[in-house]
Request: fold
Amino acid sequence: MRRDVLLLVARQFWTSVFKSKAIYLLLGLTLILLFYAAFSGVSYHEQNHHRIEHQQQARESWEANPDKHPHRMAHFGTFAFRLKHPLSIFDFGVESFTGNAVFLEAHKQNVVNFSEASYSTSLIRFGELSMGMILQLILPLIVFFLGYAAIVADRENGTLKILLTQGATWKEVLYGRALGLFGLSCLFYLPFVFATVALLLMESYTADVWIRLLVILASYLLYLFIVSLLTIIISVGSKTSKNALVKLLGIWLLLVVVIPRTSQAVGSFLYPTPTKLEFRGAIEEEVIQFGDSHNANDPYYNFIRDSVLEVHGVQSINELPFNYPGFQMYVGEKISTEIYVRHHKELLDQYRRQNQLTKWLALVNPYLGVKGLSMALCGTDLETYASFQHQAEAYRYELAQAMNELQIKHIRANVTSSEGKVNVVDREEWKSFPDFTYEYPTVESTLGSELLALISILLWSVVALGMMNYWARNASAL
Amino acid sequence: MYKLLFQQFLRTRACQLGLTLVLILGGISIIIGKQFLTDQGRLADQATQMQQEHIERNVKLHGDDLSLLLYYLKFALLNETDPLAGLSVGQSDLNPGVQRIRILALEGQKYDSDLVNPTKLLYGNLDLSFVIVYVFPLLVIAFMYNLFSEERESGTWQMVNVMARSKSKFLLGKLLVRFLLLAGVMLFLIGVGAVVLGVAADTAFLLFTLTALFYLIFWFALCFWVVCLRQNSNVNALVLLTIWLALVVLLPAFVNNYITNNYPLPEALSTMIKQRDGYHVKWDTSKKETMEKFYEEYPQFANYGFPSEKGYSPTWYYAMQHMGDVESREDSRAMQLKIRSREASSRMWAQVIPSMQAQLVFNEVAGTGLDDYMDFLQYMNEFHENLRLYFYPMIFSNSEVASVDWGQFTPEVFTNSNKSINWTKKLGSLVITILLFSVLSIFSVRKLI
Reply:
């Protein structure tokens, strides 16, 4: 391939597109969509302010507690408000369908509530308009529209023959047009890059965020590359421009509308999840196997009590050097938390299995590949949410056990009631227990769980190049 | 002539491919609907069975202390699922259909969400309403975009010019063939769905079917108008697909983003905090003060008096719990109002966007919209209060656990009965858009000939 010929063909394609007014209309519409999506993204992200504010408010009332029995504080509990990832302005992912606030207290793993979808009308099921969504869904259509006739129309009107007799090779024509089309798609893509970078520069973010952004931007670039090549391939392989257009639109519908929904439906059908009643029921059943840690006469805990008494060589818990009910709750919390965490992990694994089919289909559907990768890197996928749930639960456990430890240490041995101002711990203790903070997963772990999507995009680039080369050898000008 | 047009159309690949696709998707959607209804039924059975076991076990465990027993006891409230929900799942896959309520502060329990896979929710349900709202218009476009242009492009238009008695009748004939075929397939799918899911043949079902039919007619009218504008097939295909994209993807997303940004709900978070503080802080404040506030709410219990400031009292405990609800009431109400405004706002927008209108009407008749869920939550307040008012006097007077007839507490089923169908509001806007495009088409057909 000669570089100058390649560029010449590309430039010629570029200018022919700009001869029509349609391109300006499309650019204008895309910019409007971009503006609206960026605005929505930023104002969705602004909800973090509410959440930080409420986190502080919840903390203030936690610290404002007077001297109290620690078990009262274990039930006073606190909240974890989920903060949106800085990159969530770019791709909303499952954000709107995941809970945002959870009450953390002793003995009880509350669900994370108040997802945006739970108080949205069913319009939310039509999809949300984010920058990522425009790039995944709309931009390919625009590329199809600009490029469907790129080769086939020239064949229809005979210019292709002239071009080839003038000395250009098929390879140069195909790659030249593809380059021109890819260049055009980049023209549409660049404003998105600028907008995202500009929005992120307004705050100071860690290197992790920027690495994520870099991978996201690179993968969208590859995605557009694939889409451009695919358009040229379909164009060269079709008899008429109408055929090329219908094929491309059909492919789009199949890849973007039909396959994702169907595969997710099949996945959910194959791997049913327990109802909440079953889930809670199963945990309760297992916990009961051990016994009730609030019950002073429970057989399992009686056994523990007797062995504790034996070790300390005393007759009753009143003679122990520490508060025994606190110790019993400490043991109970440990057992019930272990059971809950195990069940919750099983549930998450079942969700992962439900999603597995869709993830594998990324290998044949680059849209799913880029969508999955984009969600994961923007911190708006299931795994990021799972990490929040995990951290909130870990914090809850620490809180409950810290209160139990305070009770064991500071409350007299024979005290069983937590009421009133008699058996209390100094309020300074509340302050010294740190507030909940959420750490996002690192970019390494995210990329690790999205290997399939990464492979999909790279694989498709190679496949598309291979198909280009095939047509460069086998295409006919007639 | 119609018979020939029919045969000719049935032989095209677009027709065969399109019909196969929609029948497969329709079939899948009905299976999914059936699955959904089965799951809901299973849930109701579990709730009933569990409630009984749950009460029996706890009565045995805490049989000597009614106030302690009621701290543990949960009473289930079920949201009745209409079989139509299998055709239009709406929001009922993410909003819980059953809630188990204790007579403690309600605000901390009311919004407990279901366990759902968020990725599944993101990709959405493949129910029949999706097939009708998304897929059928695509078939209309695929069948219609070259209705006129193919004759011109393949050179047969001249023949039609010479042979047909009326060219507009010829075009309308082609249109009718396509419409009858798609309407037939759609009614067939709805019919099969209704039989499989056990939908009753009532006015709700009639409204569902009519909405689907009118929505289909709307697309035919729109496409007919566009194809009569004399553009070539490629332009038609692009224009129609862009319209489809705008109507079923971009505009709903636009409106949804707008509503989300316009009605943010920080009240949800503040309700949570106020509910907790409203109750918990009372452990450290004067018992008399709490009781006074409680008696203000329920003067009928004032004769139970004030407990001693020292030590624990069940009356005081349940009064404290109730304070959680009282002190978060304002925020909770503000939140309810805002959520209702969200629904009202989307309904208003839907009047001018047929795809949204169709989806919202489907969900409304199926009882799976946001409003229906809000009605359920509102009823939950009543349900909770009834339970409390039933148990309060027994707790306050230290009644025996055995004195309560526990058998009566089977899960309560909420049926939304205050629904009346306003036909003009539901179908009016669709009819108007159909008329609009029909009139436009008449003008452009005239020019064509």
